[in-house]
Amino acid sequence: MREIEELFKKYKEAILYVIFGGFTFLTNLVTYLVCTRLFNIDILISNSIAWIASVVFAYVTNKIFVFESKETRLQYIIKEFSSFVGCRIFSGVVELMIIFVMATLAGINDLVVKIVTNVVVIVLNYVCSKLIIFKKKDEPKYA
Fold first, then answer.
1. Are 43 and 104 a contacting pair, CB within 8 Å?
2. What residue ranges do the domains of the chain occupy?
């Protein structure tokens, strides 16, 4: 049992990122499905709405639970959130391009494409969050 605790301590950040990444994915997917299936909104517009909802959810959970950013000064939060959104815009554009090419042009099932692209997006977002947005002050600068 001690070994499991030590492993969790060692990989806590990555484990929590995967857990909250899963919840972010669910937020994104459920929002997307509600928009496309319930309200018949275009897939690219639905994806954009789902992206906004999941970015807000991800910022809050990453800040508080995953990277444990304790800074609460408004100026810092604005800077942090701006960086977060900037990185998410990049990964969001990557996601939109993949969806457009694979679902719209190639005719692959949009739900399959949505799930596959989220794997790519989760990896991109972790790298950005770890190395840029929530970088600890005592860690060496990578970016």
1. yes
2. 2-133
